[in-house]
Automatic annotation (TrEMBL):
PPR repeats lie at residues 9-43, 150-184, 188-222, 223-258, 259-293, 294-324, 330-364. Belongs to the PPR family. P subfamily. It comes from the Eukaryota. PROSITE patterns: PPR. InterPro entries: PPR_rpt, TPR-like_helical_dom_sf. Keywords: Repeat. This is Pentacotripeptide-repeat region of PRORP domain-containing protein.
Length: 512
């Protein structure tokens, strides 16, 4: 900026505080403030707010509190306070590391550092941006003047309490703000909404409603966000009737028209109580009121139908979504459609949807395959599981460079536990032991421990009497031998008595 004759101002530095917060460089924040002071730039109230917000974002409420306290005491030595907090952090970090070292000796565990986001090369950037952080001055500079905290700063600290579930502190803070002489630090609608959120989060809906009533009494009108927070709270507690009453009340009593978010919340609430008819009626009501559904509205309604075993209705919502020029159908919507059919074991319909989604340029992901695997299991069509596994397997292997170039559009797939466990389950039940072992190997490669207890139980219950029939053609006998070998290999893996006892096993034909 200086090269372009453009000197950074206080806004530039406020942004830099946010930057340090985003990349998790708590220790640098004090140096931004010191730099502002040293450059003779005027610190403003937003700087102070960004500071408190940054520490709240780090979850370091202790330092956030100390900043607010220092402001209340009209102190100008904020940089000294922040440096002390850095020093304390450093000391605690060392203590934690010592403890972890001791732990490592005991258990042989490797300590993985917390995921601090330090981008490559960012070190140099900060050295350049904040040269004072490399060689800090001996004495931290003083603020040119003291700043008294205002509602915004108190509310930000309060949000920290709320997010950490500290309901009592949130309420106490509201009380303290109300008693302030300074009008600038009286609670506003954001403050009250934060308190409402804290009570909602703790499941204390009655207390949350009391705050809403108090807002009206104090002449601080609630806004749509306040109401949406409350709506969500009722839905979470499955009190959809109360949510509906509140939806009416917000429009009639408070004159706040519900928006698409309010409706999405209540439609989602209907799903929680298995009320797909209710979900549809709120969806229609929303449209009657001239509120355009969003992608979330459509997929939520689809979910209502998919979960309640009405895939055809989900499909109709999907078609409507396709026709709506305001929204774009995404993978979530396609997956919801697949899930709807799979829940009923309608594999053929689900497969048709998957082909269509591929034609539309969407690649199935773990969720799609998970739905399909469940559907295959429900439909008792283990043959389908083999086809599914073949497709998944191809997408799991890291392709060599040359190979992938022609086919780079298909993204790699990282299968999850639910999917692989379901596939292995189907294969073990269907006595596809060779495939089962392949899937189990894939689980192990992905660091997913297969549940041996479960597979042993299935094997013993379903297959321990296999291969005992005496009457069969030659071809069948050979096929059976092949499968028996796979079964023996599988039993070996389970730790059940098997023909390989004590020797190495492989899946190829045996020499003897
Ligand atoms: C493994 O399966 C058994 C039997 O189905 C079950 O009781 C157990 O909870 C499962 N263990 C894990 C870790 O999932």
């Amino acid at each position: 900026m200086s090269e372009w004759d453009c000197e950074p101002d206080v806004l530039t530095y406020n942004v830099m505080i946010k930057l340090c917060a985003r990349v998790g460089r708590k220790e640098l924040i004090v140096f931004v403030v010191e730099r502002i002071i040293e450059k003779g730039v005027k610190v403003c109230m937003t700087t102070m707010h960004s500071l408190v917000a940054a520490y709240v974002g780090f979850g370091d409420l202790r330092t956030a509190e100390r900043i607010v306290q220092a402001m209340r005491e009209k102190r100008r030595d904020l940089c000294k306070v922040l440096r002390e907090c850095n020093g304390q952090d450093l000391k605690e970090k060392e203590e934690v590391e010592e403890e972890e070292d001791a732990f490592e000796d005991d258990e042989g565990l490797v300590y993985t550092p917390r995921d601090e986001v330090i981008e490559e090369g960012s070190e140099d950037v900060f050295k350049k941006l904040l040269p004072n952080s490399v060689n800090p001055s001996d004495e931290p500079p003083l603020l040119p003047k003291a700043f008294a905290p205002d509602s915004r700063i108190y509310t930000t600290l309060m949000k920290g309490y709320m997010k950490n579930g500290r309901v009592a502190d949130t309420a106490r803070m509201l009380e303290a703000m109300r008693r302030q002489d300074d009008k600038n630090s009286h609670p506003d609608e954001v403050t009250y909404t934060t308190v409402v959120s804290a009570f909602v989060k703790a499941g204390l809906m009655d207390r949350a409603r009391q705050v809403l009533a108090e807002m009206a009494r104090m002449g601080v009108p609630a806004n749509r966000i306040t109401y949406n927070v409350l709506l969500k709270g009722y839905c979470k507690q499955l009190q959809i009737d109360k949510a509906e009453d509140l939806l009416r009340e917000m429009a009639e009593d408070a004159g706040i028209e519900p928006d698409v978010v309010s409706y999405n919340i209540i439609i989602d609430g209907c799903i929680l109580i298995d009320d797909s008819a209710g979900a549809l009626s709120f969806f229609n009501e929303m449209r009657t009121r001239g509120i355009a559904p969003t992608k979330i509205s459509y997929t939520t309604l689809m979910k209502a139908f998919a979960m309640s075993g009405q895939p055809k209705l989900a499909n109709r919502v999907f078609d409507e979504m396709m026709r709506d020029p305001r929204v774009k159908v995404d993978l979530i919507a396609w997956n919801m459609l697949v899930e709807g059919y799979c829940r009923l074991g309608l594999i053929e319909d689900a497969k048709r949807v998957v082909s269509r989604m591929k034609e539309n340029g969407f690649h199935p992901n773990v969720a799609t395959y998970g739905s399909l695997a469940n559907g295959v299991s429900l439909a008792r069509k283990p043959g389908e599981a083999l086809l599914l596994w073949k497709e998944i397997k191809e997408r799991c292997v890291v392709k060599k460079r040359e190979e992938s170039e022609g086919d780079s559009s298909t993204p790699m797939l990282k299968p999850d536990e639910g999917l692989l466990d379901m596939l292995a389950d189907i294969c073990v039940r269907a006595a596809f032991f060779k495939k089962a072992l392949e899937i189990i190997a894939c689980m192990e490669e992905n660091g997913i421990p297969p549940n041996k207890t479960k597979f042993k139980k299935i094997y013993v219950e379903m297959h321990s009497r296999m291969f005992t029939s005496k009457h069969a053609s030659q071809a069948r006998v050979e096929r059976r031998m092949e499968r028996k070998r796979a079964a023996e290999a599988f039993k070996f893996w389970l730790g059940l008595p098997n023909s390989y006892y004590g020797s190495e096993w492989k899946l190829g034909p045996r020499e003897d």
